[in-house]
Amino acid sequence: MNMQNHPFNLAHLLDFAGKYHPTQKVITRRVEDDKIVEHTYKEVLSRAKRLANALIKLGASPGDCIGTIALNTHRHMESWYGISGQGCISHTINPRLSMKQLHYIVNHAEDKFILIDPIFWPIIEGMHSKFPKVEGYIVLTEKENMPKTEVPNVYCYEELLESSTDDYTWPEFDPHQGSSLCYTSGTTGDPKGVMYTHISNLWHAYALSLSDAIAVGAQDTILVVVPLFHANSWGLAYAGPMIGCNLIMPGKRMDGQAIFELIDKYQATTAAGVPTVWTNLLEYADASGRIMESLKDVVVGGSAAPPSMFTRFREKHDIDLIHAWGMTEMSPLGTINRPSGGIMSLPDKDYRRIRRKQGRPIFGVDIKIVNDQGEELPRDGKEVGRLLVKGNWVVHTYFKAEQPAIDGDGWFDTGDMATIDPYGYMEIIDRAKDLIKSGGEWISSVDMENHAMGHEEVSLAAAIAINHDKWGERPLLIVVPKEGHKPSKESLLTHLSSEFSKWQLPDDVIFVEEIPLTATGKFSKLSLREQFKGHFG
Ligand code: AMP
To answer: Catalytic residue among 80, 121, 278, 442, which?
Structure first.
């Protein structure tokens, strides 16, 4: 053997941080009372090991899926490591999903335990009988904040940690073994699981730390707004211990003032989140006249950042807004917008235009655009095609699916429509997949249409995404009533609420006589979006 080949376990990142960055911190705004607490990486490591021992005592064994329903806190981060470090799968569950989706996901993953923030406990009160495979619930809090409940096998996280030791060595195994699982909305039907591996997460953590990617180092303090339950929180909870920066976990408060205060108090240098959060932050900064002095970069992704957001950050706060694009299926980083040598000499207007695009891939990911026949289109910045990707942290096969999610040459179809320019910058132009993204979270238009068409007075229904200043997009439902019927908006919303969460319901319902169709007889979403584009102001 020419070079050494060490086994890799994601928990080695935390071992490394405990050893070489022992004083760097994870700073958390607690979900129970919004108080701020600090833990060094050394403490986080010890607590993750205690959790590993506690889970083993409760009966967890390698390969088991263990769910988490939690916001960004040190406890949630510890659980990532305590679970996957011992060879189990850390399954992060989005608490904003509808009951139907939660039901599907927990049972599909066959979660053995669920770790849950106390604020989400009512979800379990209402649903535990529907989770036959779950053997116990661990509430991520201390004794005094435990819910009063009749649900069996409910444990207190802090009590479990207190009664365990941190005498634990992470096991060795094949690094291609699954480490963590995250479900994403399918265009139709049930959510689909993406199983990351120890090694794919390591690749991704290295890549995102590069200076032409998210660019983080030991001097940084990163505000992790992007949820730990959404696409791996962009890998930041892995990169943090690896490079030894401080991480700020903002808990439940996402308003502009709360976010501003964390940035200011802890002198955050980088922050990552969806456009909606940055809109709130900019509004607070404008209203209070305060400037974000410590931040050098703000990374935005998950949805397209509006052009005005770049100007507002640059002109008022001297902050470079860094546009990134990715997907749950990509761990999630696909492209990121940093200036390349090639564009530096362009006139300012052209330079700025390019800097607003979703960016260039990082080594480890390849992209191309193709036409309907699958032929590759030129990288001229003009031709729009379906965006395909491949790489070391891109999904191969969805969890428990029979067929791979990629074509014969290894390309994964993102469902996004894009251009790629001669400098390698990709720009998302449209979305071919039938989904609506509101505040960074998905709503399936097809599911909404199918359910709306189950209403006794509805003949046809189309759900479309309409641009919205605050949420990026909001759903609008367009309905053709059955002949002789006059359904009301309220009755449609009530009908939809049995399947959809409140935030997923359409903002408006419009009744029309007919819905325009494409040549192949599908709803012409393009004409509908054009017709109603200003509907939400
Ligand atoms: P998710 O798996 O929930 O992270 O969603 C991934 C999808 O979000 C992508 O396929 C795009 O449709 C959309 N998306 C992510 N980032 C951006 C971005 N910067 N601009 C436009 N759309 C984006």
So the answer is: 442
Query: 230-283 pLDDT, tens per residue?
Result: 988 999 999 999 999 999 999 999 999 999 999 999 999 999 999 989 999 999
* Atom 15, ligand 1: residue with shortest CA distance: 302
Ligand 1 binding pocket mutation candidate from 365, 389, 437, 442 (most atoms within 8 A of CB):
437
What does each C-alpha distance from 431 to 202, 356, 416 come to in angstroms? 29, 18, 4
What are the residue ranges of helices labelled H in 331-434? 348-355
Burial code of 490-510, b = ≥16 C-beta within 10 A, e = fewer? Answer: eebbebbeebbbeebbbeebe
Report the CATH architecture of 37-197. 3-Layer(aba) Sandwich (3.40)
Question: Average pLDDT over the chain, rounded to whole?
Answer: 94
The finding on whether 184 has its CB within 6 A of some atom of ligand 1 is yes
Query: Exactly one of 28, 68, 92, 184 is catalytic; which is it?
Result: 184
Residue 42 annotated to the active site: no
Q: Which residues, 6+ apart, have CB-to-CB distance to 511 below 8 Å?
A: 479, 480, 481, 486, 487
Architecture of domain 207-431: 3-Layer(aba) Sandwich (3.40)
